[in-house]
Backbone:
């Protein structure tokens, strides 16, 4: 008996019109759909008159569901997976299932569709030539700053998902670590209140307030490009390393690596700081 195929089916990230004909046809034709949230997806399926049976898989039961899904596929049934919004596997569960299918030689058929990061990038006005997507940024301030420091010398556009509760604080952290670079905040993409805030970090921060910080957000940051690293940028980062308890030697090493500047230059600035 031939095996079934696993279909990765993107769903809209807000506007219900953003589902493809192929996605709808696939969801109608498979034996079963596994959804991150069956109540949420139930409404979507009803809207498109899809009556295929629906079962849950989410980050808490994905491992347990894998064997069940694999056995259905091995018995010849086609299976689709969908997440709450956008593409399964992109800051959403699905990876474990996909990996297991690869291991078991099961065909995986991806249907193209919405990904909030790419939708945001396409209209950001920032460079689209090369970019890195990091998903959700670490939540706590200490972990976030540690994480961001490693991105200082990245030349490409950087893309993050962030909760509305933390967008403003995250921008302050960006300012501290990257300096006043260009940033784009893409809010509520494809929905009624879709808004882009564009400009230098300080300008964008000045535009944000309690009432416009509701909804879903993608943050995009201009890459380092060929910008010359300033002495004050180096000094700032050195101070942060030393405050976080690093030895002078490690601080110089980390800053030199993160900013891609010569160790000797960093050392001279450390001496001027009198540390
Ligand atoms: N799988 C989804 C995708 O393909 O983009 C991402 C799911 S992740 C759990 C949810 C996050 O994606 C949100 O917190 C937000 O950062 C971003 N996001 C999803 N929909 C969005 C929208 N309509 N506008 C802006 N950001 C969105």
Residues:
């Amino acid at each position: 008996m031939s095996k079934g195929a696993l279909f990765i089916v993107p769903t809209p990230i807000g506007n219900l019109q953003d589902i493809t004909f192929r996605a709808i046809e696939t969801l109608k034709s498979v034996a079963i759909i596994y959804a991150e949230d069956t109540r949420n997806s139930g409404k979507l399926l009803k809207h498109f008159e899809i009556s295929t049976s629906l079962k849950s898989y989410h980050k808490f039961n994905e491992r347990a569901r894998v064997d069940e899904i694999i056995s259905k596929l091995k018995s010849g049934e086609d299976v689709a997976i969908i997440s709450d919004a956008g593409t399964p596997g992109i800051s959403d569960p699905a990876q474990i299932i996909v990996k297991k299918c690869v291991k078991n030689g099961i065909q995986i058929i991806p249907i193209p569709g919405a990904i909030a990061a790419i939708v945001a990038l396409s209209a950001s006005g920032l460079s689209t030539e090369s970019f890195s997507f990091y998903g959700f940024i670490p939540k706590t301030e200490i972990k976030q700053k540690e994480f961001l420091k490693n991105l200082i010398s990245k030349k490409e556009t950087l893309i993050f998902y962030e909760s509305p509760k933390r967008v403003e604080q995250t921008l302050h952290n960006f300012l501290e670590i990257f300096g006043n670079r260009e940033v784009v905040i893409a809010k509520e993409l494809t929905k009624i209140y879709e808004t882009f805030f564009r400009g230098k970090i300080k300008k964008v921060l000045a535009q944000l307030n309690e009432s416009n910080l509701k909804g879903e957000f993608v943050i995009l940051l201009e890459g380092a490009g060929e910008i010359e690293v300033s002495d004050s940028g180096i000094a700032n980062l050195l101070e942060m390393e030393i405050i976080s308890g690093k030895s002078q030697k490690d601080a110089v090493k980390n800053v030199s690596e993160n900013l891609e500047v010569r160790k000797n230059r960093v050392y001279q600035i450390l001496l001027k700081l009198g540390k």
